[in-house]
Amino acid sequence: MTQQFEDSFHRKFYYLRLSVTDVCNFKCNYCLPDGYHPEASKRPPFITLPEIQRVVRAFAHCGTTKVRITGGEPTLRRDFTDIVHSVAETPGIEKIATTTNGYRMAKQVSDWKEAGLTHINVSLDSLDPKQFHQITGQNRFHDVMAGIDRAFEVGYEQVKVNVVLLKDLNSQQLPQFLNWIKDKPIQLRFIELMKTGEMDELFDKRHVSGVAIRNQLIANGWILKLREVNDGPAQVFIHPEYKGEIGLIMPYEKGFCSTCNRLRVSAMGKLHLCLFGEEGLELRDLMQKDEQEEALIARISQGLKTKDVSHHLDQNNPGATPHLASIGG
Residues annotated as binding site? Predict the structure, then answer.
């Protein structure tokens, strides 16, 4: 292994979030409420499979063991299964995950598993079909639920389900969600709504802290689970009477960034040191040939020297991220 990717604050990076598209077919009100609209100006196509292979290999050579394939909606890419297979074939990569809206899962999840996908996160912001439609702009609740069931049928031992907490919409549904996971090996992850460049008004109206949920969990016997080095940012709680788990992602909590172990590469081939950082560092020119790997690693390592100790959400500064679909959330 080449030297482990590490920043100036001695944080090591084991986890790559790789966006393969910023296109999405849902209209979630916290991300793309008006739907996806391509940029007016002409831009290059999304990173290709050979480029993906090269950047993943470079990260693997520097200690990365987990890759999450994100979007937009990553499964909209026709070569999604090929991407999964390619990442899975990379020496050193132990976990290959994706985050999906789930609308294709029922039909395709068997192919994903066969290609090497080891972990799945599905967005499901409500257990009420009408409210799901209201939040996502799509009447696909039953399709997504069927996809989750199908994932278990083809052999996944656990499915992670992402729920963006929205005040006066789904923030009071904890009892329903707990009942759902009591006998299902689902890790339910409540994610605090995050402010981005285009979502100021929604944030002010709908943001709710996850602290109240954490307090309820602890009061009812839920226990904090130990983290693995390539885990994401969730605080995960377990309970002896539940097959499922609860995760809380609370980016506004003090110290959230102290355990940062992940970097992002966008679908345009830019390195993003933080979801809420400034414009990304161009990598794509060094993703064209296998012989460029040493230079690619050097550029990433140099970029890491500029990674800040924390985001600046507490200062009302979401950085350059216009919406979460733009670099994969």
Answer: 17, 24, 28, 30-31, 68, 72, 99, 123, 160, 194, 257, 260, 262-264, 274
Segments making up each domain of the chain, as ranges? 15-326
Encoded tokens for 245: 């788990």
Which residues on adjacent β-strands are paired with residue 160? 121, 187
C-alpha to C-alpha distance for 93 and 96, rounded to whole angstroms = 7
Query: Pairing state of beta strands 270-272 and 235-238?
Result: unpaired
Residue 268, C-beta contacts closer than 8 angstroms, at least 6 positions apart: 43, 44, 46, 47, 280, 284
Binding-site entries for [4Fe-4S] cluster: 24, 28, 31, 257, 260, 274
> Which neighbouring-strand residues pair with 281?
271
Residue with tokens 């350059």: 320
Q: Tell how far CA 94 is from the center of its chain.
A: 17
In the block, which residue shows the tokens 């052999």?
155
pLDDT in tens, the chain (329 residues): 678 999 999 999 999 999 999 999 999 988 888 888 777 566 789 999 999 999 999 999 999 999 999 999 999 999 999 999 999 999 999 999 999 999 999 999 999 999 999 999 999 999 999 999 999 999 999 999 999 999 999 999 999 999 998 988 888 888 999 999 999 999 999 999 887 766 778 888 888 888 989 999 999 999 999 988 889 899 999 999 999 999 999 988 887 888 899 999 999 999 999 887 777 899 999 999 999 999 999 999 999 999 988 775 665 655 555 555 556 55
For the beta carbon of residue 234, count every other beta carbon within 10 angstroms.
Answer: 20
- CATH fold group of domain 15-326: TIM Barrel (3.20.20)
Alpha-carbon distance of 289 to 31, in angstroms, equals 35
